[in-house]
Q: What sequence folds into this?
């Protein structure tokens, strides 16, 4: 996979400092698939995990019918917005072994556009939402720094809390969190069951039972 590092550098040099380029090695542990990164705008480092979209691409075998994905929206934990594209690196058996991901930061442009919209709305009663505002709700990839961040973000979406130390979760909340993680392919990651069990202060067997309960409901 190291032979692709000069290509990563080449793309980053062409597109400039507002472009993050990431090389993923998918032949090993997806918990640390990032093996090289240029212009780390998302805050990720070497050893960061695969994204939720990447896991979805593997699970659904999207790479079997496509060679790349272009111009989709993503966001980072530090709040930046990106227009992203990914190139699939395949072996001779057409299996996905790596990816080169290009993330172009348009956060400042979005902020300027929104300020301009606010200014113009003072002179007009017409509330015509711009392209960027529509796109904010259409993000399909999250750029996480660690696997724990994936769990924390999902917990926050369900409970409104990042830290569960002083929060008593109901079973429905735990099921919803596990369901979202399962839908995003999180449980294909190594040690994922163990990590969720630790955060929930439950046994791994209980998490497996939750997953089975969710699958049974889907089959009804």
A:
């Amino acid at each position: 996979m190291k032979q692709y590092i000069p290509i990563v550098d080449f793309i980053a040099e062409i597109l400039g400092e507002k472009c993050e380029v990431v090389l993923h090695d998918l032949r090993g542990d997806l918990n640390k698939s990032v093996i090289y990164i240029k212009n780390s705008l998302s805050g990720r480092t070497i050893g960061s995990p695969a994204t939720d979209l990447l896991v979805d691409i593997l699970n659904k075998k999207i790479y079997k019918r496509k060679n790349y994905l272009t111009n989709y929206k993503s966001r980072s934990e530090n709040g930046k917005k990106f227009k992203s594209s990914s190139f699939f690196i395949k072996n001779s058996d057409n299996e996905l072994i790596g990816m080169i991901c290009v993330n172009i930061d348009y956060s400042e442009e979005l902020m300027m556009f929104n300020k301009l919209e606010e200014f113009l709305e003072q002179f007009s009663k017409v509330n015509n939402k711009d392209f960027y505002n529509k796109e904010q709700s259409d993000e399909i990839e999250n750029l996480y720094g660690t696997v724990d961040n994936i769990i924390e973000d999902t917990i926050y979406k369900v409970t409104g809390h990042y830290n569960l130390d002083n929060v008593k979760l109901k079973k429905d909340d735990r099921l919803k969190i596990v369901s979202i993680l399962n839908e995003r392919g999180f449980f294909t990651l190594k040690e994922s069951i163990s990590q969720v069990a630790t955060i929930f202060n439950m046994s791994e067997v209980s998490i497996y039972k939750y997953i089975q309960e969710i699958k049974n409901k889907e089959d009804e």
Remarks:
- Residues 125-137 have pLDDT under 50 and may be disordered.
- The domain at 2-107 is CATH 3.30.450.20 (Beta-Lactamase).
- The CA atoms of residues 86 and 101 lie 4 Å apart.
